[in-house]
Here is the input.
Amino acid sequence: MKKIVLILVALAVVAGGYFTLPKFEWKAPQIKLSPDSEVLALKPIEIEVTEQGTGLESLTVTLSSFGTEHTLVNEKYDQPVLQKKVTVATSKLTGIKEGPAVLRVSARDRSLWRFFRGNQTVIEKNLTIDVTPPTLELLADDPYVNFGGVGVVAYKPSADTVRSGVQIGKYFFPGHKGQTRDPGTYLVFFAHPYDVAEGEKAILIATDKAGNTRQMSLAYTLKDVRYKKSTIAITDEFIQSKVAPLVTDVAIRQKSPKEIFVAVNRALRKDNDDKIRSIGQKSAAKMLWSGAFSQLTNSKVEANFADARTYIYQGEEIDKAYHLGFDLSVTKRYPVEASNSGVVVFSGDLGIYGNTVIIDHGLALTTLYGHLSSIDVKEGEPVKQKQIIGRSGETGLAVGDHLHFGVYLNGVAVLPLEWWDEKWIRDNVTPKLDGTAAEAVEEPKTSPKTARKRRR
Here is the structure.
């Protein structure tokens, strides 16, 4: 009987421990701030509290500023809470001024640990309340921009600006400091890209460390550049000789000619263009070029920029693509020259573009030379205008020996023609560099009739 009693007592102790011990868990609640910033601005801070044991018993959030403590959250929970999210937004705060502040978050769980007081987590974060956006002064802009071409803007943001530039559609073009006589002036080359609607607005943006943003719409007349549309017939021989060799995926090689072409023209083209964009976004923060760019000596344009191509195979439309450059031809294996001074940032095979050289000219401007039969420069090598960098060829998706020449701004393809134009450089770029563009930009006075023609 004693043994039975001892066993029953032991079972009772085990059972009691099984149900009681979890109430003595010692894991404290976890607190996460997102974003974990040192500044509280117009963008709210989200506080997330998680509890993996007995659940939350209470949560308190306070904000102290200029000697006054403001209670933002003070909650006690009758039932265990395993997760709680709280948003701290300046738009919901009253009586709080800009300046230093302390955010305090205290979370306690329902554990019986620590003599029934439970586990508590407290964080205190020193913040600066800042809801004032940077100032932004437009110094010089362009009244006209070619559709698919480039505009240049000079502006001066306030000293607290950490990011600035021009946004249009899905594209952002960063501004660069220290390019003009005035060290406080920024210069930004921006495009109205070929694939952005004519009515889309270009916006000059300045953002401070707190995330506060000042915006200013740029007003310019968009000059209507007409781009060609062409239809190209694709043959089995072309797919076999030019397209299939570019496929590295064994499974795709086993597919039909049509599927092979689409895989290369769509997926590989996108991969190549993504790489070009990535390279262009790492451009030097200073100008490496001067004057007008050079067209390949003795060359003529065989295919135009932003040519919208439709591909036909056995009478069926199978794909579409833009031709993002000029095709320039002279003779076979013709010496290819650097169009302006810069630094080689890519040298090698680039899929549909074949053997390719990309030169960085600084301030997000790069040029691309594709389909080369040979390459005479390597990555990191500085080059001068008219220096031979390779020879023309028909590598990649080229039909016949020629040079594919492309101009990119922050990785976005732009109209090459204006960069060959010395007058365009003199009228649009030089005045901003030497500060002679204008002392200030005023809203142009236009008649109602002229205003209707203005596009943004």
Notes: The two ends are 96 Å apart (CA to CA). Residues 27-129 form a domain with the Immunoglobulin-like fold (CATH 2.60.40.730). Confidence is low (pLDDT under 50) at residues 438-456. Helices lie at 2-20, 236-243, 250-253, 257-280, 422-428, 430-434, 448-453.
